[in-house]
Amino acid sequence: MASASVPPARQFPCFRGSAIIGLVPYIRPIIHEGNPTLRKVAKKVNLEELKDPLFQQLIDDMFETMYEAPGIGLAAPQINVPKRIFVVDLQNDKEQGPYVVINPKFTVTEGEIESIEGCLSVPGMIGDLPRFERVVCVGVDRHGERIELEGTELFGRCLQHEMDHLNGVLYIDKAKNVRPAQTEEEKEALAEIEVEGAALERNAASA
Ligand SMILES: [Zn+2]
User: Fold this and answer.
1) 8 A C-beta contact, residue 108 and residue 165
2) For the residues of 39-53, what is the DSSP string, one character each?
């Protein structure tokens, strides 16, 4: 049953509104600040769920939605699914993704760094906030295998931003001066961080 190479959802696509589900990953709507799901503490995933083709589909859809946005991270609550799952992919050559992390926890948090962040759920805005300089995040991947990610710089801040989403926290709760991106520098920053969880160090122009 669960060993079938083609999950049932893919054999028998069904229709929900105009969206075809099951055939290919599809882009789900990203919800915005004001939607109560963004303020809930997301529920831990029961690892039995990983066997469900629809759960695997959810992960594929999260990646698809993140890439289309475009972003470098997306947490399940942002597509109105209050579960402890996020995806990250810095889309560089430094092995900083693609990863999906289920039931993540930080085992190390150290240092402090100021960053500028934006969020797909708070469009057009940016803000400055402190983050840990380095984190180690553990959880499981889509097969239930343990995964451990070490993050500093942008990757580290992305992990923290996504983790916050799982706890009902938005960066605007922590930022000092949330504002529309207006200056050239800020628009540039937003272009790069239109980007979930993205952050630029003020002087990291080379990134
Ligand atoms: Zn966000």
Assistant:
1) no
2) GSPPBPPPGGGGGSH
pLDDT, tens digit (0-9, with 9 covering 90-100), for 106-134 = 999 999 999 888 899 998 899 999 999 99
Token digits for 65?
Answer: 């939605």
From the CB of residue 199, how many other CB atoms can be counted at a distance below 10 Å? 29
Catalytic entry in 64, 95, 145, 162: 162
Counting other chains too, the contacts that 5-14 makes at CB distance below 8 Å and 24 or more residues apart are 7/53, 7/56, 7/57, 8/53, 9/53, 9/54, 9/57, 10/53
Known catalytic residue at 162? yes
* Distance of CA 46 from the midpoint of ligand 1 (Å): 24
Q: What is the Rg, in whole angstroms, of the alpha carbon atoms belonging to the chain?
A: 17
The candidate with the shortest Cα–Cα distance to 96, out of 132, 150, 134, is: 150
- Show me where the domains of the chain are located: 8-200
Q: How far is CA 89 from CA 16, 148, 202, in A?
A: 28, 15, 22
Q: Which residue, 52, 188, 32, is CA-closest to 122?
A: 32
Give the fold, CATH level 3, of 8-200. Answer: Peptide Deformylase (3.90.45)
Q: At 104, is the secondary structure helix, strand, or coil?
A: strand
How many Cβ atoms are within 10 Å of 112's Cβ, its own excluded?
Answer: 9
Q: What is the reported pTM? A: 0.82
Residues with CB under 5 A from ligand 1 (ion): 119, 196
